[in-house]
């Protein structure tokens, strides 16, 4: 029906998939019409009735004519009060556009309000969510590939005055069924039922709908989404952090067998679990998780072979990118220093690289764990000062876990030349260039030094911190600048 099941694996006679949340997703927008002030001053719908587990999403934006409006959503103690409900939902600071989601797990009426949306402070908006008990849903399983939908048996179906609720070999050499509820001579041949893949954890326990006075559908092509409680996630702490963060999850009916619990952050990252009791799970985010710090991530706990536990409200986690090392921390005032930033969480398409006010994004090579770029010549007021390095993923700054996340264009390490000898030649010649900071590191070799004269390469044969010796061939007559660079 309308609930997708993500394919995990498949064979010619079997598909293994994982169901999505079957609870409805309700959208409430800010484009409702107020009887006095018109469009944009009321929530639509203002009142909504939803089942337990439903996710309600408020969406708002200002029109071109009403650009000064700002919205937020805050739970109130009743339908006319401005007093916030203790522990209730709150979207945060008012903004001109945005959205906020909350998952309702408990039956009851929830009132909310939006403080004055206009600059004059006169127009507030209100609404209410009525949460009723969740009902089981029995849905028919359908399989499609591209524009093709797989045929399926229509149970029950009649044949020769007998009604069949399973495949039969009557009047045939193979097991078959009818694809329609009225037999029309078309037959689908049934393959033996494949065994259910064994759990990697060895789990054997399944949900028992009978505990909620429900029954598994007799139709083998139907699936029961049941509100039977298999556990609840109450809270997580912390609610933000980078790779290496240990998250403590509190709730009910967790499995004490660690591998039977799955902690899912975002759509696909399984946070490695370090400990588990019936009321608390701890997991630690690893490096190279592929989580995106651009946006807040959904957070769910899954019981192996049973499904996703309910969340007490909409529980989310803000993953943070982090910088673990910057090298080098200082370089030439003329620019040309290659900076390498190592860390975690740098999504190439969403990451910006800024040093002071200079943006390097378009010049940087970015992977999930490393950023490299070459510095430009800085403004004069940057020289010999600590200039902050800012890494943004979306609008969120990477946290600094390095000794320093600053860079200095330092005169003390800037290599420079003071003389060349001889100053004139009439053929191939060995030149001696004198200067300072030419080889500040023992790792610098002649291969790291590049000298050109009039565009012609001068082959470097020796280098020290104060001199470079190179051989130049024939060049055209003229006065030329000597240009040197160090990798």
TrEMBL record:
Keyword entries, A-Z: Disulfide bond, Repeat, Signal
InterPro entries for the chain: Cupredoxin, Fibrocystin, FN_type2_dom, FN_type2_sf, Ig-like_fold, Ig_E-set, IPT_dom, Kringle-like
Pfam families: fn2, TIG
Coiled coil: none
Fibronectin type-II domain boundaries: 148-192
Protein name: Fibronectin type-II domain-containing protein
Organism annotation: Rotaria socialis
């Amino acid at each position: 029906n309308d609930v997708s099941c993500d394919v995990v694996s498949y064979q010619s006679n079997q598909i293994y998939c994982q169901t999505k949340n079957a609870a409805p997703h309700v959208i409430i927008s800010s484009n409702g019409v107020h009887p006095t002030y018109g469009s944009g001053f009321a929530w639509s719908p203002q009142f909504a009735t939803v089942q337990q587990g439903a996710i309600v999403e408020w969406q708002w934006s200002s029109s071109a004519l009403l650009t000064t409006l700002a919205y937020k959503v805050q739970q109130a103690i009743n339908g006319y009060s401005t007093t916030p409900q203790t522990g209730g939902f709150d979207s945060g600071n008012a903004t001109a556009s945005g959205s906020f989601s909350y998952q309702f797990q408990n039956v009851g009426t929830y009132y909310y309000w939006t403080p004055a949306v206009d600059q004059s402070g006169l127009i507030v908006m209100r609404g209410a969510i009525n949460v009723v008990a969740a009902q089981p849903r029995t849905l028919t399983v359908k399989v499609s590939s591209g524009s093709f939908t797989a045929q399926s048996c229509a149970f029950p179906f009649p044949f020769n005055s007998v009604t069949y609720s399973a495949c039969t070999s009557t009047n045939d050499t193979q097991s078959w069924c009818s694809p329609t509820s009225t037999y029309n001579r078309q037959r689908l041949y049934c393959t033996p039922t494949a065994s259910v893949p064994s759990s990697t954890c060895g789990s054997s326990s399944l949900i028992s709908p009978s505990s909620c006075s429900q029954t598994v559908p007799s139709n083998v092509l139907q699936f029961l989404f049941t509100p039977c409680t298999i556990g609840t996630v109450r809270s997580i702490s912390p609610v933000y952090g980078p790779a290496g963060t240990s998250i403590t999850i509190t709730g009910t009916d967790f499995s004490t067998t660690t591998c039977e619990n799955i902690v899912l952050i975002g759509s696909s990252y399984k946070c490695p679990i370090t400990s588990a009791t019936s009321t608390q799970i701890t997991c630690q985010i690893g490096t190279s998780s592929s989580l995106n710090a651009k946006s807040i991530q959904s957070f769910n706990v899954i019981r192996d072979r049973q499904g996703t536990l309910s969340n007490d409200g909409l529980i989310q986690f803000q993953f943070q990118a982090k910088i673990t090392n910057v090298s080098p921390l200082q370089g030439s005032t003329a620019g040309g220093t290659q900076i390498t930033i190592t860390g975690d969480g740098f999504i190439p398409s969403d990451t910006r690289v800024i040093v002071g006010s200079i943006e390097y994004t378009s010049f940087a090579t970015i992977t999930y764990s490393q950023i490299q770029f070459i510095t430009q010549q800085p403004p004069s007021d940057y020289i010999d000062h600590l200039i902050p390095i800012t890494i943004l993923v979306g609008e969120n700054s990477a946290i600094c876990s390095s000794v320093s996340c600053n860079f200095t264009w330092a005169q003390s390490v800037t290599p420079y030349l003071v003389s060349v000898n001889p100053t004139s030649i009439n053929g191939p010649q060995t030149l001696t260039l004198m200067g300072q900071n030419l080889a500040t590191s023992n790792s610098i070799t002649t291969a790291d030094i590049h000298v050109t004269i009039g565009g012609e390469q001068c082959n470097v044969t020796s280098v020290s911190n104060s001199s470079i010796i190179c051989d130049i061939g024939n060049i055209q007559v003229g006065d030329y600048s000597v240009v040197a660079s160090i990798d």
